[in-house]
Amino acid sequence: MQSTSDEVLIGRIANGDRLAMQVLYARHHVRVFRFVVRLVRDEATAEDLISEVFLDVWRQAGRFEGRSAVSTWMLAIARFKALSALRRRPDQELDEETAGAIEDPSDDPAAVLEKKDKSAMLRKCLTGLSAEHREIIDLVYYHEKSVEEVAEIVGIPENTVKTRMFYARKRLAELVKAAGIDRGWP
Amino acid sequence: MNAINKEPERHEIEALLPWHAAGTLSRRDADRVEQALAGDRELARRYDLVREELAETIHLNETLGAPSARAMEKLFAAIDAEEARSPRRQRSFDLAGRISEFLSSLTPRALAWSATAAAVAILLQAAVIAAIVVKEGAPSGPSLASAPSEGSFAVVRFAPQATANDITNFLGAYKATVVEGPLNMGGQLYRIRLSETKLPKDEVGKIVRQMQEESKIVGFIAAKE
Q1: Which residue has the higher pLDDT, A73 or B153?
Q2: At the topology level of CATH, where does B120-224 sit?
Q3: Helix, strand or coil for residue B189?
Q4: Quick check: helix, strand or coil at residue B188?
Q5: pTM of the predicted protein model
Q6: What confidence tier does B156 reach under pLDDT thresholds 50, 70, 90?
Q7: Which residue, A49, B25, B46, B213, is most buried by CB atoms nearer than 10 A?
Q8: If you measure CA to CA, which chain B residue comes closest to A141?
Q9: Most B CBs within 10 Å: which of A12, A36, A41, A51, as the mutation test of the B interface?
Q10: Hey, where are the domains in chain A?
């Protein structure tokens, strides 16, 4: 049995259908939450924000034009909410400082063991990227967004999307290398 | 195997590797990447690195858990509060929706939209005429409890495209007033008074025929005793 498309659900939501809203929420809330929590790094804040994101979906469903996927539209709303929340607490948005604040694993005895687990180290370094780099890597790898969709969500040209992704990966490789694992690139 | 000789082209292909790994490239670009990977070992090695990153990014995100039920409760509490404050959208849609559903059950689906549009036009026109009646000082809106019985009358159905201005000007030109209606459930027929005094039957017939010629405003008209 084919499930109702997101676009159909949005049409129903635009008409005030609460059940359609529940279906859309059930379908997307986990991914939207994860996208937001990776940006704001705080689960309570992320929970508050996803309520706001879906409330915006409820309010704006009538204006959804269907030029992009519903999930792309929602991630764009989520991103805007997350960045606004970060701007309200600038002391907690560390971006480059966050990356720089990663402990040097070579000084950490526990991390020496961790070096043996390249996968775990990669994940650790993924959390140490700047918000800008975390965001693009998540959108491409986890949320499966195309170049065009990332451009729409982030609000940058498509060529910039490719360049930013390249530099995010390069930065990741540098962090991994600094942690003692040379992947031979770049 | 032949490595890509042109560095800019290789760089362009390399930039697409993350999307190729995620399966989000167009068929054309995916074919280009596949061809390049087949002929370039170094690029293929870098593609393996991309696939590692992809796998660990998914792994990392999957460990992030999910929001508690609190988020959903908060959302629907906010929606309830908003609907309680301004329920207009829900109500207005429900009306149109019910009309549409009703007509869809009676007519082929292809006709549902035009039928709905016509029904909505009638409702809008009813509202327009109601406004005219109120403006003209009728005592209780379009459905008068005690319609006047003195004078000469006709029953009219206004054309769907007639605007409020058209109807006002039309009634003014003939010194007529809407005194009752809508008379049927479809909301299409109105009783209008042509004169406050009882006119001869021929005179009424003449006025009705003249009115009938105003086809942009009058859809149907007949003298009524």
Answers
A1: A73
A2: Alpha-Beta Plaits (3.30.70)
A3: strand
A4: coil
A5: 0.63
A6: confident
A7: A49
A8: B54
A9: A51
A10: 1-93, 95-186
Residue A41 zone, left/alpha/beta (φ > 0; ψ -120 to 50; rest): left
Place of tokens 């109601």: B130
| DSSP assignment string, B126-171 | HHHHHHHHHHTT-TTSSS-SS---SSEEEEEEE-TT--HHHHHHHH
Q: Which residues from A are below 8 Å from B51, CB to CB?
A: none
Q: Which of A4, A126, A186, A49 is nearest to B63 (CA)?
A: A126
pLDDT digits (tens, 9 = 90+) for A85-94: 998 876 544 4
pLDDT reading at B96 higher than 90: no
Contacts of B116 (CB under 8 A, 6+ apart): B96, B99, B100, B103
pLDDT of B91: 39
The burial of B13, by beta-carbon neighbours within 10 Å (0-12 exposed, 13-18 middle, 19 or more buried), is given as: buried
> Phi first, then psi: what are they for B8, rounded to 5°?
-60, -40
Three-class SS string for chain A?
A: CCCCCHHHHHHHHHCCCHHHHHHHHHHHHHHHHHHHHHHHCCHHHHHHHHHHHHHHHHHHHHHCCCCCCHHHHHHHHHHHHHHHHHHHCHHHCCCHHHHHCCCCHHHCHHHHHHCCCHHHHHHHHHHCCCHHHHHHHHHHHHCCCCHHHHHHHHCCCHHHHHHHHHHHHHHHHHHHHHCCCCCCCC
- What pLDDT, in 10s, does the model give residues B16-39? 999 999 999 999 999 999 999 999
Q: Which CATH number fits domain A95-186: 1.10.10.10, 3.60.21.10, 3.30.200.20, 1.10.150.20?
A: 1.10.10.10
Residues 7-66 of B with CB under 8 A from A: 14-16, 18-19, 21-25, 45-46, 49-50, 52-61, 64-66
Task: Please count the residues of chain B.
Answer: 225
